[in-house]
């Protein structure tokens, strides 16, 4: 199943929240992303159907291996691209917002080149 940008964003958000707290629930995702309960519920259902997410009986959201792989990939892109834009002189808040837009569309080849380039100047 091919994920759209919104699905990637949900997975990334669950990953980020799971690094900050011991248990992540739909309400946490909605608060973090600023989305309504019905929107989050629909997205969680689709991610569960796609095999990217498990919801325990107590409501805790757990990334599957496939979900975690995508979430980590997107999160790495976000952090690397944000860092690159900040190094170019973009204010941090703008850099983070722009990186969020770029991270879903940049090819693997281009992203590898960006990472390689940044390593040379680290």
In short:
With 122 residues, the chain is mostly helical.
Can you describe what's shown?
69% of the residues lie in helices and 5% in strands. It is mainly α. The chain has a two-stranded antiparallel ribbon.
Q: Main sheet: which strands, in order across?
A: 1-2
Count of spatially separate domains: 2
Q: Kindly report the oligomeric state of this protein.
A: single chain
Question: What fold name goes in the CATH topology slot of the largest domain?
Answer: Arc Repressor Mutant, subunit A
Task: Summarize the helices and strands and which ones pair or pack.
Elements: H1 5-20, H2 26-33, H3 37-49, E1 53-55, E2 61-63, H4 65-87, H5 92-102, H6 108-120
Antiparallel strand pairs: 1-2
Helix pairs in contact: 1-2, 1-3, 1-4, 2-3, 4-5, 4-6
Can you tag this structure with a few keywords?
single chain, 122 residues, mainly alpha, Arc Repressor Mutant, subunit A, Diphtheria Toxin Repressor, domain 2, 6 helices, elongated
């Amino acid at each position: 199943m091919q994920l759209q940008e919104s699905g990637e964003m949900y997975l990334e958000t669950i990953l980020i929240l799971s690094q900050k707290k011991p248990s992540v629930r739909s309400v946490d995702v909605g608060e973090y992303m600023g989305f309504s309960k019905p929107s989050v519920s629909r997205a969680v259902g689709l991610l569960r159907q796609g095999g990217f997410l498990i919801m325990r009986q107590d409501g805790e959201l757990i990334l599957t291996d496939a979900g975690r792989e995508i979430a980590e990939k997107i999160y790495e892109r976000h952090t690397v691209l944000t860092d690159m834009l900040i190094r170019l002189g973009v204010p941090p808040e703008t850099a983070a917002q722009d990186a969020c837009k770029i991270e879903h569309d940049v090819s693997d080849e281009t992203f590898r080149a960006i990472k390689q380039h940044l390593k040379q100047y680290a």
